[in-house]
Amino acid sequence: MSTPQLPALPEVTRLSPSCIRILAGNPGRFTLQGTNTYLLGSGSSRLLIDTGEGRPSWISALHRVLQDEGASLAATLITHWHHDHTGGIVDVLKAWPGTAVYKHGGAVGDGDTALGEGVQEMRDGQRFVVDGASLAAVHTPGHTTDHVVLVWEEAGAVFTGDNVLGHGTSVFGDLGAYVDSLERMRGLFGSGTAAGGQDGVGGSAFPGHGPVVTDGVGKIAEYIQHRAQREEQVVQTLRAENSAAAAAAAAQGTTTAVGSEDGRKTWTVMELVRSIYRNVPESLHPAAAGGVVQILQKLAREGKAVLEGDGERWRLAGAGRSVL
Asked: For the structural domain made of 12-214, what CATH number should be given?
């Protein structure tokens, strides 16, 4: 939840003989150094992954790189509908009319109707091939419902979109789907057709934001563990019935708690946030609340947590009821 100073990344970086990263020129709190877009291939036709949010500096850099490479675009592949990944589609189509653009769900989905016509459906398992790069789309919802990752088959590497980042952790719209997708992604690395991975990037994660992660499987394991720890913190906090229980939990480094007036173990979302994120600046608590809500909804679907009648307070399922 902290926002440390991030190391600078160049606008254009050749990451391997067949992969060039072009930053979208939109650094920020949620975009880190900016949205990563990637140009794949080694011949006269290349694949583009994501388009940034439509900054003039990005389309100029893309023009310059393609001119230097003596190449044009074969297709543009979109990892998900968020504007910082789709905003440059219009610029791409103006510069290279007729370029095929693919996105899971096509042009309409999750509110991205502004993409207009001409965005084609990207199917789960669909392959895109140019000289030097073969990519396979894998539907991995959670961050968004339409999210895909792209497996670089020759290299045994994965373009992870926003499911895995180069710094910190990602946000998600559906925690259960997100964790399931992370588990699926674990098996996508290191399966390159070239021994050890083409271009020396086998096992790497190429994220939608931040630097390349050389140990993609290890990073995903960290993400899964982090999510499990957050879920356990919520469960332990819900379990804390009174100040004595809260003090004991706090002594173990897990929670602090606020007891309800009638002694039942019920909590509002913001009470949970203030407890679990007590060492995080309060300005970041609203952002943390979204993740806590997702955990509570996941627990509710699993029958482990219940939303009380007023619709604002949560408790563990079967907990806190008087037997008298």
From this structure: 3.60.15.10
